[in-house]
Amino acid sequence: MIFSWETGWYRGYSVPFIRDGFFIAHIWIFGVGGGSFDHFN
Predict the structure, then answer these.
(1) How far apart are the first and last CA of the chain?
(2) I want to staple 32 with a disulfide (CB 3.0 to 4.6 A). Which of 37, 39, 40, 41 is the partner?
(3) For residue range 2-29, what is the model confidence (pLDDT) as tens digits?
(4) In the chain, what are the helix, strand and coil shares in percent, each to the nearest 5?
(5) Are 36 and 5 in contact (CB under 8 A)?
(6) Measured between alpha carbons, how far is 40 from 26 in angstroms, rounded to an integer?
(7) Where are the domains of the chain?
(8) Please, which residues have CB within 8 angstroms of residue 12's CB and are 6 or more apart in sequence?
């Protein structure tokens, strides 16, 4: 599951629900303290 913060493909989606869905999911799965949150910003 290494894709969104590496390639940023989710940013290409125009559907807020899908984009926010993956955004929230990855933060909860990998953890904000894991450094994944830094990639989102």
Answers:
(1) 19
(2) 37
(3) 445 555 555 554 445 555 666 666 655 5
(4) 75, 0, 25
(5) yes
(6) 10
(7) 4-40
(8) none
Radius of gyration of the chain (CA): 10
Distances (CA, A) of 33 to 10, 23, 28, 39: 21, 15, 10, 12
If you count them, how many residues does the chain have? Answer: 41
Q: Is the pTM of this model over 0.70?
A: no
Q: Which residues of 8-38 are buried (b: 16+ CB within 10 A; e: fewer)?
A: eebeeeeeeeeeeebbeebeeebeeeeeeee
Residue with tokens 């990998």, as numbered in its chain: 30
According to DSSP, residue 3 is labeled -
